[in-house]
Design brief:
This protein has three domains: about 5-110, Beta-Lactamase; about 115-180; about 190-330, Heat Shock Protein 90 (2-Layer Sandwich). Helices cover about 40% and strands about 25% of the residues. It has helices at about 20-30, 30-35, 40-45, 50-65, 110-140, 140-155, 160-180, 200-210, 230-250, 295-310, and strands spanning about 5-10, 15-20, 70-80, 85-95, 100-110, 195, 220-225, 225-230, 255-260, 265-270, 310-315, 325-330.
């Protein structure tokens, strides 16, 4: 058995490991006392396996030893002797003597890379499914608006409505840009480190209308908002969405404050806020979920932009009782 490329071992009828090959010793770097002991209890006790993993393995081994199955395959995430992690697949087959099952042979194969590829594919599929749902559902409204004004202009010759159509097309373009950011892994998003004037950025977000309709009696207050270091385009998406979200969920005459402090860039509102125990359920940063019934892509965009810069998004209660969202880690240039 020592010639096998995979790790191998033999269990007796009481699940004690009575043999391990050199490959298993080499890969796991486990002590001999751990290798030759009741399996999987010893590995769970020493922290190499989780209790849940041990329970799954024990159930599989018992089925093999009881003759209920010809073999069992168990995928296991383990911590090696040097502290590194590895995911393996163990195949258990019975050992018979005189027609009785007296033990089992286990063969271990490293499947860490395969599992990571499968997880990445699952994450990609999930992003694509959410992206497809967003594009197919949430683009319909501004597209219908634009089409309606264009059709009206064709029928009547009146071009006054084309300005509204152009605005709708601009909103569609912004939504597509946001969706493209959402479709990518934060690690794959390239960011530029430039000095961005936060006051100018906030004013541009407010004037553009890209992030929703701002109430006429709303007030945007810029506090201590000098230049910050970040990617100008991505920061505009993030800060704009935070401002739009603050106005959407503020009071009848909302005041939104934007600035940068020792923690990072913040956007705070004076809205009603949410109880602490409801914040996680509010869908603040989950793609496709919004506590106000919208698309939910705005808060998710903010979190994705933060991650691309190596920052985090922190949402707490503001001094006025509403929300205070902070891009923690963003730094001023001065």
């Amino acid at each position: 058995m020592n010639a096998l490329g995979d790790g191998a071992y033999v269990l007796d009828a009481d699940r004690n490991r009575v043999f391990v090959n050199d490959r298993l010793r080499e890969v796991t770097d486990f002590d001999e006392a751990v290798l030759h002991d009741e399996h999987p209890e010893r590995l769970v006790e020493t922290g190499h396996w989780s209790k849940e993993t041990g329970d799954r393995y024990r159930a599989a081994a018992e089925r093999v030893l009881a003759g209920e199955v010809d073999d069992e395959r168990v995928q296991i995430a383990m911590t090696l002797g040097d502290g590194d992690g590895m995911t393996v697949e163990t195949r258990l087959t019975p050992v018979e003597r005189g027609g009785d099952i007296v033990g089992a042979v286990g063969v271990i194969r490293d499947v860490t890379d395969r599992v990571e590829r499968e997880r990445e594919l699952e994450r990609l599929n999930e992003r694509l499914e959410r992206l497809a749902g967003f594009l197919s559902h949430d683009l319909r409204n501004p597209l219908s608006v634009a089409r309606g004004y264009v059709d009206l202009a064709r029928e009547t010759g009146d071009t006054e409505g084309l300005a509204a159509a152009e605005s709708a097309f601009g909103r569609i373009e912004s939504m597509i840009e946001e969706a493209l950011v959402m479709a990518r892994d934060p690690e794959a998003i390239e960011t530029a480190d430039e000095a961005v004037d936060l006051a100018d950025l906030a004013a541009d977000c407010l004037d553009s209308g890209d992030f929703g309709e701002i109430p006429a009696d709303a007030d945007l207050v810029v506090e201590d908002a000098g230049p910050v270091v970040g990617d100008p385009t991505l920061l505009r998406r993030a800060v704009g969405n935070l401002i739009g979200n603050a106005f959407d969920h503020g009071r009848d005459a909302p005041t939104v404050r934007v600035g940068v402090d020792e923690r990072g860039i913040y956007v705070a509102d004076d809205g009603p806020g949410l109880p602490v125990d409801e914040r996680e359920r509010a869908g603040l940063t989950e793609f496709g979920v919004d506590r106000g019934g919208g698309t939910g892509i705005g808060p998710a965009i903010v979190e994705r932009v933060a991650a691309a810069h190596g920052w985090t998004l922190d949402i707490v209660e503001s001094a006025e009782g509403g929300f205070r969202a902070t891009l923690v880690g963003a730094e001023p240039t001065g």
